[in-house]
Amino acid sequence: MIGTVVYQNSKSSCDIANKVVVQALVLSTSARKNFTVGEVVNLMSVDTQRIMDYVQMVNLLWSAPLQIVIAIYLLWQQLGIATLGGLGVMILMIPLNGVISVFIRNFQ
């Protein structure tokens, strides 16, 4: 199943880059003056990757909360009240993750 996802992701990325190249080739001479070769290459590489990253993140928006709820339920079935300790750690890690990400962003 993972192989299928990787294959579809690669195929989609190639399809998007192909569309950009085709559009660049059919531009009129006057329109080509508006775009440099570097801008077209940027569209093919960086922007294509951003689109693919967006597609993956949209999938996480619904699946991550569902996975967390299922994991907490299964932990509750096995551990009972001790699950609340793990849940507390998860909740405390949310602001810590935010602080670390701000630090890394400023450090770069």
Automatic annotation (TrEMBL):
This is Canalicular multispecific organic anion transporter 2. It is a multi-pass membrane protein. The chain crosses the membrane at residues 54-76, 82-104. One of its GO terms (molecular function) is ATP binding. Residues 15-108 form the ABC transmembrane type-1 domain. Keywords: ATP-binding, Membrane, Nucleotide-binding, Repeat, Transmembrane, Transmembrane helix, Transport. It is found in: Endomembrane system. Signal peptide: none annotated. It comes from Nephila pilipes (Giant wood spider). InterPro entries: ABC1_TM_dom, ABC1_TM_sf, ABC_transporter_C-like. The keyword Transmembrane applies. Coiled coil: none annotated. It holds the Pfam family ABC_membrane. One of its GO terms (cellular component) is endomembrane system. The keyword Transmembrane helix applies.
